[in-house]
Sequence to fold (315 residues):
Amino acid sequence: MNNILEAVEILRKGGLVAIPTETVYGLGADASNNEALKKIFAAKNRPMDHPLIVHIGDVSQLKEWAQDISPQVLELAKCFWPGPLTLILKKASQVSDLVTGGQNTVGLRMPNHPVALELLRTFKGGIAAPSANKFGRISPTSAEAVREELGTAVDMILDGGACDVGVESTILDMSGNQPVILRPGMITKKQIEDIVKIPVLEKQKISPRVSGSFESHYAPQTKTLLLDKPAIEKYLAEEVKPVAVLALSQFSVKDNVILCRMPEDAKTYAHDLYQKLRELDKKALYAIIIEEVPSTEEWAGISDRLIKASGRGYK
Ligand code: TXA
Ligand code: MG
Fold:
């Protein structure tokens, strides 16, 4: 039996399958099976009231999960799916509270990865999948990283190689009067505004709950600091313990410092970030120092994750 058929069988029996997507790996379960959904929360140590994204393989499935689907929503789906955009919509009546966290909305996304799409299209139903990491930790961007995070808690890991995008999808709430970005990502506000033709708000502090808005999220175990260049220079001048620096600019460093020059373009930076943090987190360093990234829109998703990784985040 090929991997996809095996994965479908596991999902139909209520098991968990780790799925490669273009953003990060997801921990997938049949979104219409409550017993399977409960296993997701147990495997991740995730609080039960945190809603899950339902992944679908075709736009025509939208109406199975959501209602009041506006022309704008269809336009967004047409432009960005498959791709790293999650749409929050008014839920269809039968969607489980385990998926929605008891809210009247549901998050939906069609991922742009050939393995995920083949799985979804063979399975035919929706697959609920949070990122395949323990709650609060860095999302995995490779099959190996999923193994490290979840080990035997998952019945199967589909290996789809390293994730292209590397940070989680942009979450856009389309359930109210005005579109609101709940979690920035590599699809920017401007790209969305170009499609919906009305202003898009950015609001990370509001309900409905987004688990990514907890203070220390997407975080390495190692103490992580987010500093500007002068602050890093000052820090390095005084620090003698082993530390790493994720740098965009040039630094001259002493022997106690691992200097990682990061890519200067946002797309490649995002692709490399979690893998790099995971690698450094294993080195028993005293601290990981990250140089602040530009405050332009294309860096918004990255900046958001760095703020959270450094525990400097908002509640
Ligand atoms: O790129 C991604 O979005 C990845 C891949 C696997 O698709 N998934 C992901 O899932 O990042 P997760 O669960 O780690 O983050 C999804 C976020 C959570 O913070 C959750 O609270 C929010 O989406 N969310 C899901 N449904 C929601 C809803 N109905 N209202 C508000 N937020 C919702
Ligand atoms: Mg997550």
